[in-house]
Write a structure and sequence with these properties.
With 124 residues, the chain is mostly beta strands. The chain has no helices and eleven strands.
């Protein structure tokens, strides 16, 4: 099973940017169809943020982040990124990357492989 590790979270002010990284080890990313980013705020359910189809680069976004966040991948580094611009306080959450869903890409229960998460805090 692939191991995933997120990094890049932190404390920023509203309007700032952050770039999250998710590095994979154990198996090559090329064998996974979709990589996803999810987030979970305290007391809330884990929600879909973005996903990328590894082979073609096709991307998908939640409406709440469309136009502000960009998901991308680096094949040679087995890494997927989440560039977050124009951050808002409501973006505050623990962000997780996940691999290879067995169902819909935006359904967190479809994913078996998860990273440990990275905290993003946006102050107003």
């Amino acid at each position: 099973q692939v191991q995933l590790g997120e990094s890049g979270g932190g404390l920023v002010q509203a309007g700032d940017s952050l770039r999250l990284s998710c590095a994979a080890s154990g198996r090559a990313f090329s064998r996974y169809t979709i990589m996803g980013w999810f987030r979970q705020a305290p007391g809330k359910e884990r929600e879909f943020v973005a996903a990328i189809y590894w082979r073609t680069g096709a991307t998908y976004y939640a409406d709440s982040v469309k136009g502000r966040f960009t998901i991308s991948r680096e094949n040679a580094e087995n890494t997927v990124y989440l560039q977050m611009n124009s951050l808002k306080p409501e973006d505050t959450a623990v962000y997780y990357c996940a691999a290879d869903p067995k169902g819909n890409y935006n359904d967190y229960s479809a994913y078996a492989s998860w990273g440990q998460g990275t905290q993003v805090t946006v102050s107003s």
